[in-house]
Design goal:
mainly alpha; elongated; transcription cis-regulatory region binding; TetR family transcriptional regulator; Tet_transcr_reg_TetR-rel_C_sf
Length: 210
């Protein structure tokens, strides 16, 4: 028999709740645009608030400060995207194909191209904000953890080493991309870089024998 609770219509989002959600979303979008064009350090909370036409007090109803809004940007877009990318690497390693790994490496370079405008702000915040370093650390740790098939092939007593290999891969890709695409201090084509990085990392990520 249907109870009174079962017969109640779904609770509709109030206009106030929707306005709060919209304001938060606009603040995230404005902060992302400012961080992308100006970097992290020069942008003030007042700048983010002004970009959406709200007050500083309204900003602080939604976020505790700049690190908090940058965390929201990461959680909303960057982190899920990069986690999906390393889930893809997990499947690629399952194939045992160097050719598939090289194709993944080329996609990795493309991924950095897509997100390169926000990377300097991320690096600045990691350097300047102790609380954001923890966010960055959590993000780094999450990448080996999504590679469940890769980890399952390593002995229990070498799990930390397996995770470290992925973390070092991430760090080298970030550093290479910064020097290559953003600083211009490495002169190489994307194709050649992908091939050399594959020569380095494909054997480094193989499951140990014995």
């Amino acid at each position: 028999m249907e109870t009174p609770a079962d017969s109640e219509p779904p609770r509709r989002t109030s206009l106030r709740d929707e306005q709060k959600r919209l304001t938060r979303s606009r603040l995230i979008d404005a902060a992302k645009q400012l961080f992308t064009t100006q970097g992290y350090a020069p942008v003030r909370v007042d700048d983010i608030a002004a970009a959406v036409g709200c007050s500083r007090a309204t900003f602080y109803l939604h976020f505790t400060g700049k690190p908090d809004v940058l965390r929201a940007i990461a959680e909303q877009g960057t982190l899920p995207s990069v986690q999906h990318f390393y889930e893809d690497l997990d499947h690629v390693l399952d194939t045992g194909s160097r050719k598939e790994f090289a194709a993944w490496m080329r996609r990795a370079i493309d991924w950095f191209q897509e997100y390169k405008d926000l990377l300097p702000a991320w690096d600045e915040a990691t350097t300047l904000e102790p609380e954001f370093r923890e966010v960055a650390r959590e993000g780094m740790l999450s990448l080996p953890n999504v590679m469940t098939s890769y980890l399952s092939r390593w002995p229990i007593d070498r799990q930390d080493e397996a995770k470290l290999r992925i973390e070092l891969l991430v760090a080298q890709l970030e550093r290479f991309f910064t020097r290559w695409a953003m600083q211009g201090t490495i002169d190489v084509s994307a194709e050649e870089a992908a091939n050399v990085l594959t020569d380095i990392w494909y054997p480094a990520l193989q499951t140990p024998k014995g």
